[in-house]
Amino acid sequence: VASTTTAASTPTSYPTSHVQVEQPLDTQNFIDNQFLPSKATQWIDLHDPATNNLVTRVPQSTDEEMRAAVDSAEKAFPAWKATSVLHRQQIMFKFVALIREHWDRLAASITLEQGKTFADAKGDVLRGLQVAETACGITTQITGEVLEVAKDMETRSYREPLGVVAAICPFNFPAMIPLWTIPVAAVTGNTCIIKPSERDPGAMMILAELAEKAGFPPGVINVIHGSAKAVDFILDEPKIKAISFVGSNKAGEYIYQRASANGKRVQANLGAKNHAAVLPDCNKNHALNAIAGAAFGAAGQRCMALSTLVFVGETQDWAPELAQRAKQLSMNGGFEEGADLGPVISPQAKERINDLIASAEKEGATIVLDGRNQKPANYPNGNWVGPTIIANVTKDMTCYKEEIFGPVLVCLNVPTLDDAISLINDNEYGNGVAIFTRSGSTATKFQKEIEAGQVGINVPIPVPLPMFSFTGNKKSVAGGGASTFYGKPGLQFYTQQKTVTSFWRAEDATSTRAKVNMPT
Ligand code: NAD
C-alpha cells in the first residue's frame, strides 16, 4: 500500500483500504520546493483512526528547519511580488487542474489520516478547490480605484502583498483549510508558511507537490510541522506578517493574542455550537434528513456540524423518528462502500465524547440514541462513537455548554419561535444556525433577529461558497471577526493598500515662493 505522505507522483497511486501501510514513511518538511527529511528529535505518531495502525511519523520541525522555511519564503517574496498578476493567474489555473486530477488521491489521504468517509473527503477537497478556482479571477478582483481629486491631480489605490504569511490548520479539514490560505495569499503575491495539523498533514503534502508542479517558484509555498512549539515559532518570528488560524478556542485565543501583541495581522476562526430551530410547519421529512446528515456526517467533526437541536412546540415528539433516521446511518471504515460516518480522530477524543454523554445522563437528560460501545465488526480497534441523540437537555448542562465535536446531537425544547431565538442568541458561539419552516415570514423574522453569522433557511450547514466569505461571529472568531476567510475580506486580509497621489502640471510652476499651508 502506498503511503500518501510520500511524493508519489501519479494521481492513481493512493491507498484504497485501511490495511496497515507496509513501510510507514516519515512526513517531510517542504522547503524551497523540496521535500526534505527532518532532523527532528521529537516525532508525533500518526495513527489511522479506523484501526489505530501507524500511518506516518510527523516531525516537530527543528528551529533550523523552520528558520530555513521562513528564509526561503522571505527570499522568494520580492521576485514573486514583482511577477505580473496574469503570470500568477496562469500558475493558479495549473494548480486548479492538478488538484482536480489528484482529487481522489487527496481524498484517500484524508480518509486514511483523518477518518472521514472517502465520499465526504472528496467534498473536503472540493470546498478548497473552489477557493482556488475563485482565486483564478484575481485579475478582476484586485483592481484599484482612481479619482481626479483636484485639477491635474489624481489619487490611485493599489493592493500590495504583505510578505511572508502563515497558516496554522486544524485536523478536521486537511485539504479545505490549507486551501483557504494558499490560493488567496499566493495569487496576491505573498509567500506562505503552512503548518498543517500534526494529526493529518498528508493532504497538505500532496498539495505542496502539486504547487511545485503547477509552477509556484521555490519559497512561495513552504510546509513545516509540529504542535505548540511550531506554533510559537510562527507567532514570534518577525518576518511573518500575518497569520490565518482555524481551530479550537483554547489554541485560537492564545494565538490571536500573542500574534497581535507581536504586531501581526491575525484572522482566527474558532469553535462552535450550531443550533437548528425546527418549527411544526416545516417539511418534516426534509428537516429530519437534513438534521441527521448535518449532526452525524463526518462524525460531527465539522465546525458547522449541527450539534444542537431546538424543538419548537410539538416537534419535540419527533425525537424517536429522528433517532430512526440516525440508526440507518452506517458507521464504518471510511473506504468501505456505503459508509456514512467514520471514526473520531483519536482515542482521547472518543473518551472525551463518551464522558460528555455520561455527564448528560448524570445531569438528567434523556439518551434517546446511545452511540457508546458501538463498533463496526471489521474495525475493532478504531475510535468509534455511533450517532447519539440526547433529549430534554437544558442550558445549564455540560453537554450544552461545551463543544462536543463528535456525532452527538443535543436537543432542547421551547414553546415558541421567540423562545428559540432568545435561547440561540444567549449562546456565546455564533458560527452557524438553521431554521426549518415553510413560512416565509417566520424565516424572515428568524433571519433578522438571530445573531449567529451564517444562517440556513431549510439548509442545515450554510457554509458560504468562496465568492462570499466565512462569516461566523461572537466566540466563534477571535478579535471580533474583523477579518474573515476568503471572498473579498480574504483578499483584503492578505494585501495592504497603497495610495499614490500625483500631480502632472509642471509647466506653470513659475513662482519661487513655497506655500506652507494645507491646500483649502
Ligand atoms: P486545535 O486548536 O487543537 O488545533 C488547531 C491547530 O492549533 C493545530 O495546528 C495545532 O497544532 C495547534 N494547536 C493546538 N493546541 C495548541 C496550543 N496549545 N498552542 C498552540 N497551538 C496549538 O483544533 P483541532 O482539534 O485541530 O480542530 C477542531 C477545532 O477547530 C474545533 O473547535 C472546530 O470547531 C474548530 N474549527 C473551526 C472552524 C471555523 O471555521 N470556525 C473550521 C474548522 C474547525
From TrEMBL:
Residue intervals of the Aldehyde dehydrogenase domain: 38-500
One cellular component (GO) term of this entry: mitochondrion
Single GO MF descriptor: methylmalonate-semialdehyde dehydrogenase (acylating, NAD) activity
Pfam family, one: Aldedh
Source organism phylogeny: Eukaryota, Fungi, Dikarya, Ascomycota, Pezizomycotina
Record organism: Polychaeton citri CBS 116435
Enzyme Commission code: 1.2.1.27
PROSITE patterns: ALDEHYDE_DEHYDR_CYS (PS00070)
GO biological process: L-valine catabolic process; thymine catabolic process
Highest taxon of the lineage: Eukaryota
Keyword vocabulary terms for this entry: NAD, Oxidoreductase
Name of this protein: methylmalonate-semialdehyde dehydrogenase (CoA acylating)
CDD domains per the UniProt record, alphabetical: ALDH_F6_MMSDH
PANTHER family per UniProt: MALONATE-SEMIALDEHYDE DEHYDROGENASE, METHYLMALONATE-SEMIALDEHYDE DEHYDROGENASE [ACYLATING], MITOCHONDRIAL
Family note: Belongs to the aldehyde dehydrogenase family.
Matches recorded under InterPro entries: Ald_DH/histidinol_DH, Ald_DH_C, Ald_DH_CS_CYS, Ald_DH_N, Aldehyde_DH_dom, MeMal-semiAld_DH
